[in-house]
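Lay summary. Proteins are chains of building blocks that fold into shapes, and those shapes determine what they do. In this project we predict the shape from the chain. Here is one chain we studied, written as its sequence of building blocks.
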Amino acid sequence: MRTMVVMVALLASSAALAQSAGTPSSPPMVGDRPLVQIKPRGDKMATSEGAGKQAKSGKPSVASQLQACLEIEDGSKERLDCYDAIFPPKPKAPKKGAKPAAAKAVAECRFTKEQDERLACYNGFADAIPKLPKT
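And here is the predicted shape, written in a compact code that computers can read:
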């Protein structure tokens, strides 16, 4: 019994010495590299990415801008101008005999040369956006 008490005392003291042996100013090491420690982000998380930047700058999202353009009369030059303000047109010169590819994203509509086709492309994507709640 006495030897068991001595063994427990030795193990407890050696564990306490091992914990206090490292200097507190040096970071913990894994092999020869310092252990990467991740700090909590706190309030930075809301302002660091996408929506936080838009909320900070006061600029509405692209989806809400497209929906605002839907309120303008359909087929009008004003609606196309509204879309072009969001995505400035950059028409590509089509290859001879090549059929233009359908846009896979709303930003690809700006490459369409014809105004009517570009307006129809924007309208197709803007109509597909679910209605955002008014805030």
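What the prediction tells us: Residues 16 and 107 are 62 Å apart (CA to CA).
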